[in-house]
Amino acid sequence: MTELPDGPAGAVPEDLSTVAPRLRDLRRRSGLTLETAARLVGLSPAHLSRLETNQRQPSLPMLLALARTYGTTVSDLLGETAAERDPVVRAGRTEPSEAGGWTYWTVGGAGRAMQALQVHVPQRAQGDLVRVHPGEEWLYVLEGRLRLTLGAAVHVLDPGDAAHFDSLTPHRIAAAAPGGVVLLFVHTLLQSGAAELCLGDDARRRGL
């Protein structure tokens, strides 16, 4: 599994200052050791430990991987409040957040089996990041052009184009235009209550 890059070492910006203790708390509540959680996310135990002790700033792709592993959302990791089980997300209530050069807006409800985001990826932002993890992802391009690498295949998506793929396929997301790309991004969570209803307790033990 390819390890995810993070932001520079040093002080974490104020809007990410609560992430470290929440990461540690969520991992412990999930019953995962540091070594097991690090393997699921694609990090070394030392790297994850630095995130949990506020010595490193996670990027948005890393936050997505951590949220998926702990069965929660990026909004929850950041301590953002969201209406529980509210089926409607009003445009005026979504505030942009930034991590690792990516800007994102939460456009899905809390406590669900998947997370929905609107994401702006600037050109050359983490263009070499390759991710591999359990689950599924769905992308829909709103503005700009997206270069999506799935395994050895490279696809260029224009506005209105979409992609739906198994996240175990090595994949890379990058902007293919100077202004970056804006897309809708939906991914499944690994440890959600809804998933357990469908997959059973055995799925949790197998890490699905």
Q: Summarize the main sheet.
A: 6 strands, antiparallel
List the secondary-structure elements in sequence, H or E: HHHHHEEEEEEEEEHH
Query: How much is the average pLDDT?
Result: 76
What structural class should be given to the helix and strand makeup? Answer: alpha+beta
Counting DSSP E segments of at least 2 residues, the number of strands comes to 9
Which consecutive residue ranges, at least 5 long each, have pLDDT under 50? 1-14, 191-208
Beta strand %:
25-35%
In order across it, which strands form the biggest sheet? 1-2-3-9-4-7
How many helices does DSSP assign? 7
Work out the radius of gyration.
16 Å
Shape: globular
Distance between the termini: 16 Å
Q: Percent range for helical residues?
A: 25-40%
Textual characterization of the structure:
The two termini are 16 Å apart. The chain is an alpha+beta fold and 208 residues long. Helix 2 packs across helix 3 (45-52). The longest helix has 11 residues, at 19-29. The strands form two sheets. The chain has a six-stranded antiparallel beta sheet with strand order 1-2-3-9-4-7, with helices on one face. Residues 1-14 and 191-208 have low confidence and may be disordered. 25% of the residues lie in helices and 25% in strands. Strand 1 and strand 2 (102-106) form a beta hairpin. The chain has helices at 19-29, 34-41, 45-52, 60-69, 74-77, 193-199, 201-205, and strands spanning 97-99, 102-106, 114-121, 136-143, 146-150, 153-157, 162-166, 171-175, 181-188.
